[in-house]
Amino acid sequence: VYNLSCDYQLVIGAHLARQHGIPLIITPFEHLGANVSARVTRNITMPHQLSMLHQAEAVLALPVAEAEGLVALGLSPDVVHAVGSGYDPAPDDLAQVPLPEGLHAPVVAFVGRISLDKGAITAAQAVLALDGASAPAPTLALMGPLDASFDRYYRTLDERQRRRIVLLGPVSEAVKHVVLEAAEMLVLPSRVDSFGIVFLEAWAHGKPVIGARAGGIPGVIDDGVDGLLVPWGDARALSEAMQFLLRDPSLAFRLGAAGRQKTASRFTWQAVYANTERIYQQVWQAHLAQHEETAP
């Protein structure tokens, strides 16, 4: 069963597992970690959801922070496994894809729902705060569906500020990777990500990343090793982190290179699949052994 917030699928899946006497494995996509909002946590820790998790033979978390959060909720460490996530490599024909209009170097990339919870407003505030502090001033490229929360904020900006905040909206995979390749860094100061596959995509381009110390992100980014972490909603801290990377290209290169190496070794689909298959095999073998012991 995938996605704990899809209650109908969760309940039906658990019922079918009991009905047919087969193991139940859940990949919950929990947004557990540091500083997750009460609203987000409440939606993924309801009694019936926790009951289903406790019935599972295995629970597959994405980052380590999610696995630790599940254990803190009372699940056995023997049941919880951090398997990570994979990413899809960039298309081969990027040289034929032009950079979207309005982007001027240095570019700061953002990929995800353009909303308050995802940190888009914080990212915009942080970029605008660098006006005059960094020469030339960076441009923020926002890629993803536009949320009403950001739309209201964007309407308060003047024309000069809007030129620094480029709303690209939903883009193709090719355009996304072209922007990531051109960007100095990726920022995703989100509190609602259980993992953040876009970090892997940015790392695959050798780019440093900045995330929020919230949700599952601290289990993906090693602060100071392959990226930087800032408090959620802290535009000043995010602005300082951006400026830190813009002023120290050698550090930015080292962080991006470390992220690329980590992605290649741990987060390819081949590596994730092998780890997941191993857990499924262990669960199934334990199920068969238990069935043989109870057989007449």
For the structure shown, list the relevant keywords:
single chain; 296 residues; alpha/beta; six-stranded parallel beta sheet; 12 helices
Tell me what the structure shows.
- The chain has 296 residues and is an alpha/beta fold.
- 46% of the residues lie in helices and 12% in strands.
- The strands form two sheets. The protein has a six-stranded parallel sheet, sandwiched between helices. A three-stranded parallel sheet has the order 1-2-3, with helices on both faces.
- Helix 5 (120-129) links the parallel strand 4 (107-111) and strand 5.
- Helix 1 runs parallel beside helix 3 (47-55), helix 5 (120-129) crosses helix 10 (235-247) and helix 9 packs across helix 11 (249-266).
- The longest helix has 26 residues, at 269-294.
- The model has no long low-confidence stretch (mean pLDDT 90).
Brief sketch in words of this structure:
The protein is built from 12 helices and 9 strands. The protein is α/β, with parallel strands linked by helices and 296 residues long.
Write the layout of secondary structure elements.
Elements (H helix, E strand, L loop, with lengths): L6 H14 L4 E2 L11 H5 L4 H9 L2 E4 L2 H9 L7 E3 L24 E5 L8 H10 L9 E5 L4 H7 L4 H6 E5 L3 H10 L2 E4 L8 H8 L4 E4 L14 E4 L4 H13 L1 H18 L2 H26 L2
Parallel strand pairs: 1-2, 2-3, 4-5, 4-7, 5-6, 7-8, 8-9
Helix pairs in contact: 1-3, 5-10, 9-11
Cα(first) to Cα(last) distance is 31 Å
| Overall pLDDT level | 90
Widest sheet: strand ordering: 6-5-4-7-8-9
Summarize the helix and strand pattern as letters.
HEHHEHEEHEHHEHEHEEHHH
The backbone outline, from C-alpha atoms, is elongated
- Give the low-confidence spans: none
Amount of beta strand? 5-15%
Helical content, roughly? Answer: 40-55%
Tell me the Rg in angstroms: 21 Å
In DSSP terms, counting alpha (H) and pi (I) runs of 4 or more, how many helices?
A: 12
Structural class: alpha/beta
Main sheet properties: 6 strands, parallel
Secondary structure tally: strands: 9
